[in-house]
């Protein structure tokens, strides 16, 4: 047999030896993924049978070889996607919601374009063109596609299927210029009035209101909490009897596909776990809810269905949208209340306090996405210009 140095994962020339009973032995040197070369052999009734048995045996020897060893540069992109999803599950680092989001974005945005291509055919130019075309439709979708495409191709690089990740060299995506929107006090009171009319039965259509929507909005305005965090508030998280009424934000509501909606025992980030002093309007809304709550348990949810189960964020959004449509008010979402709170606090006390209230780890996030810019220049400039350019008497 040849004594040449073998590449990892390959075998040398096959040799044959006789075996008892007229059978045949086929053997070859195989260099595994640990770098060691071993003699592997298999027996068969004939030379051909022995050789086939040996090749089958060699193909199963993986040692440190990843389970995706069958992937090559000529494999379809879909095969890489399947292995990438398996790898995400094996790693177990992502939350279930993020894992579902990644798979959904890959199947909805990327696979329809790349599904018929081999890995070798996916280069920088193709990825760059794809993202630019998608960004013309939606910056958000282009950003989501970029994330999952980079992760999947990065796995191919780590497993030495591709020499480099083409996503490392695509052009940067530029977010369209936009200004965070926020409600004015007049708009907030118009929303309150519309909800009050609906809950009092003065607006037509739909099932009889249970009085929770108005309280949910007041708590969002009084805490800056996300809708899922508000719906996860329990009796034990509320203190409206002390000198400073407060609510502890310590969980969120999650809805996994095909599973019941549940309360998750932590909010979105570590800094999102916080205790917030609440204003009188929010404290009054909480007191009214506590009076109406039937379950005495400290773990009972402040806002829940008639059966005591968690409300879904999507149902609350739909209900809010329905009420706003009846009132002829457009563009109101639960997240808009969060931006409204951030804008109000920033105007009064600065962006750092606004970021702390929202549970942000970086005030830059608050500035970029939550605070409506005040377009009014300091009126002091009028006095300065009046003094500088006053007309002669």
From TrEMBL:
Coiled coil: none annotated. PROSITE patterns: CB, TYR_RECOMBINASE. Residues 75-157 form the Core-binding (CB) domain. Keywords: DNA integration, DNA recombination, DNA-binding. InterPro entries: CB, DNA_brk_join_enz, Integrase-like_cat_sf, Integrase_catalytic, Integrase_recombinase_N, Integrase_SAM-like_N, Tyrosine_recombinase_XerCD. Residues 178-384 form the Tyr recombinase domain. Belongs to the 'phage' integrase family. This is Site-specific integrase. The lineage of its organism: Bacteria, Bacillati, Actinomycetota, Actinomycetes, Micrococcales.
């Amino acid at each position: 047999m040849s004594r040449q140095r073998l590449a990892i994962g390959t075998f040398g020339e096959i040799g044959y030896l006789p075996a008892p009973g007229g059978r045949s032995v086929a053997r070859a040197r195989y260099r595994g993924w640990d770098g060691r070369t071993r003699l592997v052999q298999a027996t068969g009734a004939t030379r051909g049978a022995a050789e086939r048995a040996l090749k089958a045996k060699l193909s199963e020897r993986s040692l440190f070889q990843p389970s995706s060893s069958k992937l090559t540069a000529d494999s379809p992109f879909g095969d890489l996607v399947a292995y990438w999803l398996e790898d995400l599950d094996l790693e177990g680092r992502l939350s279930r919601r993020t894992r579902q989001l990644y798979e959904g974005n890959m199947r909805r945005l990327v696979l329809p374009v790349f599904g018929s291509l081999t890995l070798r055919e996916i280069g920088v130019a193709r990825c760059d063109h794809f993202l630019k075309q998608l960004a013309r439709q939606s910056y958000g979708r282009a950003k989501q596609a970029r994330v999952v495409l980079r992760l999947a191709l990065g796995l191919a690089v780590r497993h030495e299927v591709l020499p480099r990740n083409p996503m490392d060299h695509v052009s940067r995506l530029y977010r369209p210029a936009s200004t965070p929107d926020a409600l004015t006090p007049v708009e907030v009171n118009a929303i309150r009035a519309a909800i009050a009319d609906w809950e009092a039965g003065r607006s037509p259509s739909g099932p009889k209101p249970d009085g929770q929507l108005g309280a949910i909005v007041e708590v969002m305005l009084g805490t800056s909490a996300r809708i899922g965090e508000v719906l996860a508030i329990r009796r034990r998280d509320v203190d409206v009897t002390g000198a400073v009424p407060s609510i502890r934000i310590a969980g969120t509501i999650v809805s996994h596909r095909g599973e019941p909606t549940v309360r998750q025992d932590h909010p979105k980030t570590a800094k999102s776990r916080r205790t917030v002093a609440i204003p009188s309007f929010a404290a009054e809304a909480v007191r009214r809810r506590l009076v109406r709550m039937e379950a005495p348990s400290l773990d009972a949810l402040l806002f829940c269905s008639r059966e005591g189960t968690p409300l879904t964020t999507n149902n609350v959004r739909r209900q809010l949208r329905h009420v706003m449509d009846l009132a002829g008010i457009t563009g109101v979402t639960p997240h808009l209340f969060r931006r409204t709170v951030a804008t109000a606090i920033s105007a009064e006390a600065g962006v750092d306090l606004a970021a702390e209230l929202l549970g942000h780890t970086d005030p830059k996030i608050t500035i970029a996405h939550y605070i409506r810019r005040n377009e009014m220049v300091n009126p002091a400039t009028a006095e300065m210009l009046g003094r500088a350019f006053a007309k002669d008497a």
